[in-house]
Amino acid sequence: MNPQEKKLELVQLILNTNKPAVLAKVEAVFKKEKGTDWWDEISEAERKTIEEGLSEADRGELLSHEEVLKEVKYTTEYNQEKGTPTACSLGQPAGPQETPLIGNPVPIKHPSH
Questions:
Q1: Which among 33, 43, 35, 107 is positioned nearest to 76, based on CA atoms?
Q2: 62-91 pLDDT, tens per residue?
Q3: What is residue 55's predicted lDDT score, i.e. its pLDDT?
Q4: Distance, C-alpha 107 to centroid of its chain
Q5: Residues 6+ apart with CB under 8 A from 74
Q6: How many whole angstroms separate alpha carbon 21 and alpha carbon 9?
Q7: What would the pLDDT profile of 13-44 be if each residue is shown by its tens digit?
Q8: Cβ contacts of residue 113 below 8 Å, gap of 6+?
Q9: Which residues of 66-91 are buried (b: 16+ CB within 10 A; e: fewer)?
Q10: Can you give the pLDDT at residue 113?
Q11: 29-to-15, 35, 111 alpha-carbon distances in Å
Q12: Is the pLDDT of residue 96 over 60?
């Protein structure tokens, strides 16, 4: 079911109910969603990391796309030569073929290894 079909189904359910408690719950869900800011949903460590990155960018401490690709290539080759698992990237299992953390050519042990 695509999102538009799901919306129509939910509208129909809302229109057909005469239960105030159900309508109050639906309203509460929307009010909560409207007031939720992703910043409040992330950890303090994540906020600190983002703020540090913004400060670095404000100071002009940036890497070009090409520089990042070179760093990743170097670190990946280093870890493949050593046969050492690297940090998980994008939620994938760690392994020599995975992209390591940028800027850290030292192998990182994954908890499962």
A1: 107
A2: 888 888 888 888 777 777 777 765 554 444
A3: 92
A4: 23
A5: 105
A6: 19
A7: 999 999 999 999 999 888 877 777 788 888 99
A8: 85, 94
A9: eeeeebbeebbeebeeeebbbebeee
A10: 42
A11: 17, 10, 38
A12: no
Two structure tokens written together for 104: 């850290």
Q: Which residue has the tokens 């520089």?
A: 67
Predicted confidence at residue 109, as pLDDT, reads: 46
* The two three-digit tokens of residue 42, written as one number: 């992330």
Give me the amino acid identity at 42: I
* Nearest of 80, 89, 90, 84 to residue 107 by alpha carbon: 84
pLDDT at residue 79, as a whole number: 72
Dig out the tokens for 46 from the structure. 């994540």
Q: How far is 111 from 96, CA to CA, in rounded Å?
A: 14
| CA nearest neighbour of 62 among 31, 103, 101 | 103
Q: How many residues does the structure list for the chain?
A: 113
The owner of tokens 């869900």 is 29
Both tokens of 90, joined, read 């994008």
